[in-house]
Write a structure and sequence with these properties.
By secondary structure, the chain is mainly alpha-helical. About 85% of the residues lie in helices and about 5% in strands. The chain has one helix at about 20-115, and strands at about 10, 15-20.
Length: about 120
């Protein structure tokens, strides 16, 4: 509050405002600052609630995924065994075909050697 000896119509420093105008301006700035702070607090609360809701959704989704993984674990293991046994069967077939091809080549060469010798 201004001292009683000061007149509200006197100029306040070099700004060209009277003491009363300066006090009004400061009160207006304070009011604006409080409004901005309240607005920021409301926005912060809104964001906190939004983030909390999103985190709850993420937790729920992760829990659902873990349950699905636990339910489908045996099926995936069985499928993995089938794929691995299929790969073993494939290599077995390739080995047998390779063995038969090499045997056919050896027999053909043996026939050629027998004909050449006779």
């Amino acid at each position: 509050m201004a001292p009683p000896s000061q007149n509200h119509d006197e100029p306040d420093s070099l700004r060209g405002l009277t003491v009363g105008e300066t006090a009004l301006l400061r009160r207006e700035w304070d009011r604006d600052t409080r409004e901005r702070l309240r607005d920021l607090e409301r926005r912060q609360e809104h964001l906190e609630h939004t983030i909390a809701d999103k985190m709850a959704e993420i937790r729920l989704e992760l829990r659902r995924l873990l349950e699905q993984q636990a339910e489908q674990g045996p099926a995936l293991d069985a499928l993995n065994k089938m794929v691995n046994s299929g790969l073993a069967l494939r290599w077995l077939v390739i080995g047998v075909v390779g063995l038969l091809a090499s045997l056919a080549t050896v027999l053909t060469a043996w026939e050629a050697v027998r004909k050449w010798l006779s």
